[in-house]
Specification:
Blueprint lengths: L2 E3 L6 E3 L1 E4 L16 H16 L4 E3 L7 H9 L8 E6 L16 H14 L5 E6 L8 H17 L3 E8 L2 H10 L6 E5 L13 H6 L3 E5 L20 H17 L3 H10 L6 E5 L3 H9 L6 H15 L10 H12 L1
Parallel strand pairs: 3-4, 3-10, 4-5, 5-6, 6-7, 7-8, 8-9, 9-10
Antiparallel strand pairs: 1-2
Helix pairs in contact: 1-2, 3-4, 7-10, 8-10
Length: 332
């Protein structure tokens, strides 16, 4: 396992980070719960991650029971042996859309205190504002959310502050407006085989001393042999391209998922890459994907990039998630 310093922080994270959203069963290949068998599976997965050098775990209140389950999985490990990253602002995945977001000062403080208690720790390494573009007004982020996190940081309960967004331009906007130091920026599906738009912004974040976190290297399930979940918002042409790439990889005897993860996680334009892992087998395969590719794999990767994905010049689905949210609110 290789490690990188995350921006100007003292977090020396494994370049492959563990995304615990999988524990809320967002994807087709997971079914985690509180049964003794499931909890043992979860612990085995976490233990294997540690064994193979993963030391960074990312989660959020939005991921339902994922925080609780991750806390159970981490309980047997020394707190100093890993970095814990969670989030504020987005909650209640199983409730109506009008209850999903709360960026207020009071809720932000409460969310962090709840996470500290849940993980039985007196500090969280990185607290991130989850999809802040969903706030009614960015001024609330500047006047309530960030000051609340900074207050917690000064008390030693939060070590670093990060921001998350689907939209890279929004990350830049908040960084430019904030008088409070932002340590990291996370975005989703923008450094993948189908969308490399993050690359053109990498120097901006580096020059600002901000750690850059790449999430969803498999494009939220799109770049897998099983295909994306039903809620995936990729347009039809991208879904078709992913199917074509998967079929081509099968014809070459290689794994699309492995190529996709290798492309993202070893890319020099980000610091770390977060991916979910639903089994011990997936942990092993994902870590192995960091190794040098065979000549056949290199050739297949180059082919699907040059002949399938690059010609589409895809820049992600933009504000589709935000628009969908607003439509849901309008129906209420």
């Amino acid at each position: 396992m290789k490690y990188k310093r995350l921006g100007q922080t003292d977090i020396n994270a494994s370049i492959l980070a563990f995304g615990a959203s999988v524990f809320n069963n967002f994807f087709k290949d997971s079914n985690f719960n509180y049964s003794p068998e499931s909890l043992q599976d979860l612990k085995n997965i976490i233990n294997k991650a540690f064994e193979l050098g993963i030391n960074y775990f990312d989660v959020a209140p939005w991921y339902g029971n994922a925080q609780n389950l991750l806390a159970i999985g981490l309980k047997d490990h020394e707190r100093s042996s890993y970095y814990l990253a969670t989030k504020v602002g987005r909650y209640n995945v199983d409730k109506p859309p009008n209850e999903w977001f709360d960026f207020s000062y009071q809720r932000t403080i409460k969310s962090v205190e709840d996470s500290l208690k849940l993980f039985d720790t007196n500090y969280i390494d990185l607290i991130q504002i989850h999809d802040f573009e969903f706030a009614d007004d960015i001024q609330q982020i500047l006047n309530e959310t960030l000051p609340a996190l900074n207050e917690l940081k000064l008390k030693g309960k939060v070590r670093y502050i990060g921001i998350n967004s689907y939209l890279i331009d929004k990350l830049k906007e908040l960084i430019e407006l904030s008088p409070i130091k932002i340590d990291t920026a996370l975005t989703y599906t923008h450094l993948t085989l189908d969308d490399t738009s993050l690359i053109e912004f990498a120097d901006y974040f580096r020059n600002k001393g901000i750690g850059l976190i790449n999430s969803a290297p498999l494009s939220m399930g799109l770049l897998t042999e099983t295909g994306p979940p039903n809620w995936h918002r990729a347009p039809e042409k991208i879904r078709d391209a992913a199917i074509k790439a998967s079929q081509y990889c099968k014809s070459r005897g290689v794994s699309l998922s492995k190529l996709a993860l290798h492309f993202s996680a070893t890319n020099q334009n980000c610091d770390i890459t977060i991916v979910s892992m639903a089994s011990v087998k997936f942990v092993e395969e994902n870590v192995q994907a960091l190794d040098d590719l065979s000549e056949n794999e290199k050739s297949a990767l180059e082919y699907i990039r040059q002949n399938i994905f690059i010609p589409l010049n895809y820049k992600g689905y933009g504000d589709a998630e935000l628009l969908s949210y607003k439509k849901k609110l309008a129906k209420k």
